[in-house]
Amino acid sequence: MIKRESLLLYAVTDRTWLGDNEPLSGAVKKALEGGVTLLQLREKNMSKEELIRSACEIKEICRSFGVPLIINDSADVCLASGADGVHLGQNDMPLKEARRLLGPDKIIGITAKTVEQAIAAEKGGADYIGSGARFGTSTKSDAKKLEPETLKAITSAVSIPVVAIGGINAENAPGLEGLGISGAAVVSGIFAAHDIRKETVRLKEIIKTIVHRKTERDTA
After folding, report:
1. Residue 184, pLDDT above cutoff 90
2. What's the pTM?
């Protein structure tokens, strides 16, 4: 299980955005100081051994801030590092298999780009859904832009939380309002920033306003 509020500002790492003198752990700490509520370790160019070492280091930093750590794609790295969960794409390990390996207490997020995928993820026991690429993205060459109507249909079709992902930054984040999301997952909008801590604070305030307006409409 995951608390819905933990998904408000979901940072996804990508050390290719960092300068030569900025270690990933240092950038993560700055993002956490800025108010990130969940962190995913997603480093495509690390070996499994490197990922496990990095996950163990970053897990301790996340724990000091009370923030869950999610591992992209790999249940093995999650188990080896003691991270809090995994995020799986449609072509990764099946959700049922991941749950069998990780047990009932680990967080499992699933990427869903259609209503059908979202409903299947919820029925399969996913804790949350990531949907995108809302504004396109430079981190995945094959990612297609997800239209706002599709994202709204996804959030309306499931009861588990949905986070938007894909090219989100402080400038375009207001365009997520009214789509029913519980938060936003951000890569370059945080880790490519000149001042990671300051930009994270700015982003969180924008997304908090969007999500709180959704909550107010839901309870009205």
Report:
1. yes
2. 0.93
